[in-house]
Amino acid sequence: MPEIFFRYIEKKSILHSINPSIKLTAVLIMFVAVTLVIDPITSLVFLFLIILSTRFLANLKFREIATALILSISTATFIAIFNILFYKTNFVPEIPAVFKIAGLKITDAALKIGLSRGIRVFSLINLSVIFVSTTNVTALVDSLVQNIKIPYRIAYGTLVAYRMIPLLSDEFNQIQASQKIRGILPKKNIKSKIEFFFKQAIALMVGSIRRSDRLALAMDSKAFGAFKKRSFYRPKKIKFKDIVFLITTVFVILITYYIMWKIGFLKKLGILA
Amino acid sequence: MSQILVNNLSWQYDGRSRPAISNISFDVEKGEFILILGSSGSGKSTLTLCLNGLIPQEMPGKFSGEVKIEGLLTNKASLSQLTQKVGVIFQDPESQIAMLKVEDDVAFGLENRLIPLDEMRIRVKESLKSVGLLQYKDDITSNLSGGMKQKLSLASMLAPMPNILIFDEPTSNLDPKSSQDLYDLMHQFKRLNKYTILAIEHKLDGLMDIVDRVLLLNPDGTLLADGNPRDVLKKHISKIKEYGIWIPTVFWIGMKIEEKYKEQNIQIETLPLTINEAVNTFKPLIKSYSGKKEKEIRNKKIKKREYKKVNQLEIKNLSFAYTDEKYVLKNLSFSVDKGGFLAIVGPNGSGKTTLAKILIGILKATSGTVFLYGKDILSIDPVEISKKMGFVFQNPEHQFLSDTVFNEVALSLGLADKPENFIEKRVNDILKQFELIEFKEKNPFSLSQGQKRRLSVATMLLWDQDILIFDEPTFGQDFKNSQQMWNILRELNSIGKTIIVITHDMGFVSELTKKIILLFEGEIKFFGNTFDLFQKRELLLNSNLMEPIQTTLARKLKLSFKDGILPTTIDEFLYLIN
Questions:
Q1: Is A231's CB within 8 Å of B117's CB?
Q2: What is the reported pLDDT for B301?
Q3: Measured between alpha carbons, how far is B166 from B160 in angstroms, rounded to an integer?
Q4: Which residue among B192, B211, B244 closes a domain?
Q5: How far apart are alpha carbons B408 and B393 in whole angstroms?
């Protein structure tokens, strides 16, 4: 389950109390802001800001998100090293080396790009972790429907399907166990392994289709989709506080850009660089 | 005017060759409690879907006749209106809960009906309170037990304030205690006289005292009888037996007594439906009770229960925990003799299935050892284990890998590189044994529930294993299929197989199994002879288990063997009453 890495952690914090749609918007803006920065020092400043908000705005202890941190650090490290070693400028003879590793030329550009990409990946994963850890799924869907006017049939339909995911993985485990007990194991070649997987998937699908039929009946019985509108048990409003939060986020990004540009680190913004 | 009016109703699903129900007519007055009986596939569930308008409005098929709910025609009125008037609770607890939190799920149906927030808050609270779940309102739905899930579905159904409640086998996936809880709620609703209730159920013993009427369906979806339960049972008993429909235990005992007394020309005036009725009816019959022969039959029974002492399977100090803190199984020790018939019982969540998984080697014990013929099971190759021990899972579909019934059975033999003619013969033999030979070219998924079950057992018996473990073999099955399953178990045991069965089905346990393990919260609370367990009423109650009806009845009649032991099988009961 993805929940091992990303899961909602019930707590009290500023971020927990922000309207989920606003929070999502703020996180997306931050995503873009981080992605556009090529300069590693500026990236590092953003990472620092994100880590600060993890601890103080989201009230998350690093122990609580340890698995996610390990995942993001290892991914980021891999990307950084890969880029430093193999960035295209390393293979252009005219560009001088900063230093060499095992005969491989490392250029200045490769070093910068590698570090910047690594730091940005680390930042982006952590942004996602902050969002997921502070946002209850039901609250998010409630808010998307009420505040952003996403059609409720689609939103809640997805939520109902989401509820079924753990059941599916349980069921797949049982299917595998029942084959093992019969002493049926696929032969050691890849072809028969793939065949075996598909056969098990069929057993899983037959069960799921039947379940989704039953679920559809139950939904109809609850008048799901009977009317265009619906009322809300958990009203989600956009409050003054939420607007302040969104504006502050944008302001902090612009200030950071400005300062970094003033002191000469941030020379240009790039897309996917 | 009647609250429900069904007139000449027929329905045929698209793509089916015959109607699921045809020419059904009946009407229901407000406040009635109606039981719908019929074998599986006779259209019981279809009939209930016709009452809240999902048929014909949401399903493709051919509809004729008419159904009126409080004056509304179900093929014309809006679904939101119909589903508000008629609430349905279905069989599978997993597939009717929509939301992640308990109170959100109750609110879900109200939000869809545009009920204002203030009103919703009141209704959510009241619905949860009426099923006893108010204190769990903030819980995550997937963490609830099966019984609690069904109560939640009930609460969600009550919130829109329906007048008619339909229960479509709500207890078939529950343990006995949770079923009883649900029956208690149904009793409560009946007393309130607020709702009209239609119920489809297989286990009738807990409900008979509130049933006003029975609708009995033929396997072809026509209505055979409509009347008060005693009349319908009495008049159509041969059909009911033929269709394999459950008969209330006390009614069954009454019939048996009648049979026995035929020669003495004693007739039971009215066959009982409930325990209280049975006590009154049977009391006059036991005046002549002397208790002379008791020692004899008891001794005979005990002798029959003796068998050769070979420890096939031995469990020593077994403990298991999924995480460090919480032990699911705590220091279990027991052994299973060759040719034994052992039941493992206990409420849901007591660790039964975990234990079975350890026995078969899917899970590793945290501490302790399982010995198979004296050898540590962890040191035996998995393929070798599967040749000594078979395991039949709850859901037969999980194991189907092949496109035909024949190939499904042949599969593991084929992988073992056995010669083709050997496979052919062995598979055909097994298919014959399980009455599946005529379906050998069919796809396993297209079989009926009972056939799927038999196939799943058949595939497990290829290696002629000595030990067979069954995990809830009658889970979600109707009476006929359950009976068939238990017959298979009994036959296998009679040819010398050791049977271990995890089950809730106390009726069958008391009749068939020799030994019993009672698991409660991961500990063995009882390990011994089956009939001994059923003497311990306190223990059963504390472990959320029910004793067999005949035992309850015997206690109320003060009917016991000389040494004070209560009868636990129907035969013993009949013997004593003579």
A1: yes
A2: 53
A3: 14
A4: B244
A5: 15
Which residues are registered as beta bridge partners of B6? B26, B67
- pLDDT above 80 for B262: no
Token digits of residue B557? 């009649």
Question: Judging by beta carbons within 10 Å of its beta carbon (0-12, 13-18, 19+), is residue B474 exposed, middle or buried?
Answer: buried
Best of A222, A227, A230, A237 to disrupt the B interface (most B CBs within 10 Å) is: A222
Mean pLDDT of B31-57: 92
pLDDT averaged over chain B? Answer: 88
Q: Is residue B15 part of a domain?
A: yes
Confidence at residue B86, expressed as pLDDT on a 0 to 100 scale: 95
Q: Using CA atoms, how far apart are residues B19 and B10, in angstroms rounded to an integer?
A: 7
Q: What angle (nearest 5°) sits at the alpha carbon of residue B69, between those of residues B52 and B219?
A: 60
Contact between B433 and B455 under an 8 Å Cβ cutoff? The reply is: no
Q: Is B518 inside a domain boundary? A: no
Q: Are A30 and A253 in contact (CB under 8 A)?
A: yes
Regarding whether B338 and B240 lie in a shared domain, the answer is no
**Residues B365, B234 share a domain:** no
Order of all β-strands in the sheet with B389-392 = B389-392, B467-471, B498-502, B341-345, B515-520, B523-529
Please tell me the least confidently modeled range out of A99-103, B25-29, B33-37, B376-380.
A99-103
The enclosing domain of B335 has a CATH number of: 3.40.50.300
Domain count, chain B: 2
Predicted confidence at residue B310, as pLDDT, reads 64
Residue A125 pLDDT: 93
Put simply, whether B141 touches A (Cβ < 8 Å) is: yes
Domain membership of residue B565 (yes or no) is: no
Residues B501 and B355 in one domain: yes
Which pLDDT does position A3 carry in this prediction? 44
**How far apart, in whole angstroms, are the C-alpha atoms of residue B551 and residue B410?**
45
Its ipTM equals 0.83
Q: How high is the pLDDT of residue B286?
A: 73
Q: Is residue B525 part of a domain?
A: no
Same domain? B68 vs B191: yes
> How many angstroms separate the CA of residue B422 from the nearest CA in chain A?
19
- Chain A residues within an 8 Å CB radius of B82: none
Range of the domain at B177: 4-244
Q: Which residue of A has its CA nearest to B161?
A: A222
- Note whether B150 and B224 are same-domain residues: yes
Residue of B nearest to A152 (CA): B112
B99 touches chain A (CB under 8 A): yes
pLDDT for res B324? 66
**CB burial class (10 A; 0-12, 13-18, 19+) of residue B420?**
exposed
Nearest CB to A223; choose among B83, B100, B117: B83
Same domain assignment for residues B405 and B491 = yes
Select the residue from A192, A221, A231 to test the B interface by mutation, using most B Cβ atoms within 10 A.
A221
Rounded CA-CA distance B38/B232 in Å is 12
pLDDT beyond 50 at A157: yes
Q: What is the pLDDT of residue A2?
A: 40
The pLDDT tens digits of the residues spanning B68-82 come to: 999 999 999 999 999
B312 and B224 in one domain? no
Which residues 223-262 on chain A approach chain B with CB closer than 8 angstroms? Answer: 223-227, 229-235
Q: How far apart are CA B447 and CA B438, in angstroms?
A: 11
Q: Does A175 touch chain B (CB under 8 A)?
A: yes
Whole-number Å distance between alpha carbons of A71 and B13: 51
Q: Which among B398, B412, B449 is the top mutation candidate for probing chain A, defined by the most A β-carbons within 10 Å of its own β-carbon?
A: B398
- Condensed to tens digits (0 to 9), the pLDDT of residues B90-124 reads 988 888 999 999 999 999 999 999 999 999 999 99
